[in-house]
Amino acid sequence: MTVIVHSEDGVTLAGGAGFSVADLTLALTIAPYLVAADGGANVLADLGHMPAAVIGDIDSLRADLQQTLTDRIHRIEEQDSTDFDKCLARIDAPIVLALGFAGARLDHTLAAMSSLARFGSSRVVMLSEHDICFLAPPRLTLPTLAGQRVSLFPMGQCSGRSSGLFWPIDGLDFAPTGVIGTSNRAISAQTTLEFDSPDMLVMLPPSQLRAAITALMASPDWPRPS
């Protein structure tokens, strides 16, 4: 797969579901290279921003922006993957903050969550009004507050271990149609999670974004397929 965007800094990736100026400003302070997934460029333009690149099948990008952003548009014609998938496969960056992929249509939110698991890297954090969401790495140590929500949702069959959770996960066999881990909560100043496969999504309050990114960057990531 040809890399389109290479950044030694983080990438903020904008989707078309919409996001606030505050969330965009926060994301850009952490990941300053701005990229749009197709119609995400429409939302950026309405907020007064122009992306360095637009990646996707370009079926949602406004005609005026297709004229303005001609040399920044990277059209990927195939229809077997989502625009989120297309972007993640073609971005090389230490961290990707994804805005505008959750909170609107439920099918789009579920597709984005599926993309996080399919991409197989914990270095992609999806940010929405009420949550941040990312694929759990093999081992993660998070600073937490007692009572803070730590939700877990399996995208496939998986198992793991934990410390610092009200409901420990040791010995549980997780599956999307079986045991899930939503609405768990921290009971100490540090929560540790370990998983045996790249199949578990972690959801935290948005206030934990910076702490989660720091923890993710200090954690091992899953090996990428060669």
Characterization of this structure:
The protein has 226 residues and is an alpha/beta fold. It has six helices and 14 strands. The chain folds into two domains: 125 residues, Rossmann fold; 79 residues, Rossmann fold (3-Layer(aba) Sandwich). Strand 7, helix 5 and strand 8 form a beta-alpha-beta unit. The longest helix is centred in the middle third of the chain and has 14 residues. The protein starts with a strand and ends in a 9-residue tail after the last helix. The mean pLDDT is 95.
Domain module count: 2
What proportion of the residues form beta strands (DSSP E)? 15-25%
- At the first level of CATH, what is the class of the largest domain? Alpha Beta
Strand order in space, largest sheet:
5-4-3-2-7-8-9-14-11
Percent in helix: 10-25%
List the helices and strands and how they pair.
Elements: E1 5-6, E2 11-14, H1 21-30, E3 33-37, H2 40-46, E4 53-56, H3 63-68, E5 73-75, H4 83-89, E6 91-92, E7 96-99, H5 106-119, E8 124-127, E9 132-135, E10 139-143, E11 151-154, E12 160-163, E13 190-195, E14 200-204, H6 209-217
Parallel strand pairs: 1-6, 2-3, 2-7, 3-4, 4-5, 7-8
Antiparallel strand pairs: 8-9, 9-14, 10-13, 11-14, 12-13
Helix pairs in contact: 4-5
